[in-house]
Design goal:
183 residues, 6-stranded mixed β-sheet, binds uracil, 4 iron, 4 sulfur cluster binding, hydrolase, EC 3.2.2.27, iron, Type-4 uracil-DNA glycosylase
Length: 183
């Protein structure tokens, strides 16, 4: 994947490393977060910092094998002070995510949080109403099954969400397992 030298937006100026993605390139499920944080920028790997630890623990608790997932973000470079990526940056980075989805061709995409859910589905959804459900990604992202849940970092400020994400992922696992047995 030719992302390594990307200079399509201003975020390349301050990055230590670009964080493309990690996991098997034939993964059935792709998990998409928002953008790399400090640790991710340092190690060039998604979800290795605080949010990553929460994610790993939640996956372990739900019996989803992290090693089977391809994990990436909407944005491949760290925004300063972990601010939300802006429209220009999201637009510039879009092509990379589209290419990843085309190449990996996952059956399922899990969108972690508002930014990923919006980018993939094209809808300004309320997580409160749509978490734990499937929506379709837009045509640009292959009209795939996108499963919506909260971002693990949200649990830092709202502890109750830990249980919510866990339940969402348990439900996802059941549906995924059912899909496998039916095929
Ligand atoms: N938050 C994200 O959305 N992605 C990461 O890789 C790390 C933290």
């Amino acid at each position: 994947m030719e992302i390594k030298n990307c200079r399509k937006c201003q975020l390349h100026k301050n990055r230590t490393n670009i964080v493309t993605g990690h996991g098997p390139t034939n993964a059935e499920t792709m998990l998409i977060g928002e953008a790399p944080g400090k640790q991710e920028d340092k190690q060039s790997k998604p979800f290795v910092g605080k949010a990553g630890k929460i994610l790993t623990q939640t996956l372990e608790n739900t019996g989803i094998q992290k090693n089977n997932l391809y994990i990436t973000n909407v944005i491949k470079c760290r925004p300063p002070k972990n601010r939300d990526p802006n429209k220009k940056e999201m637009e510039a980075c879009k092509q990379h995510l589209q290419t990843q989805i085309k190449q990996i061709n996952p059956t399922y995409i899990i969108c972690l949080g508002r930014i990923a859910s919006k980018q993939l589905t094209g809808k300004n959804i309320k997580l409160k109403n749509k978490h734990g459900t499937f929506l379709r990604t837009t045509k640009e992202y292959g009209k795939k099954k996108a499963y919506i849940t909260y971002h693990p970092a949200a649990t830092i400020y709202n502890k109750k969400l830990k249980q919510t994400i866990k339940k969402d992922l348990q439900k996802f696992k059941q549906i995924q397992t059912l899909g496998q047995t039916q095929n």
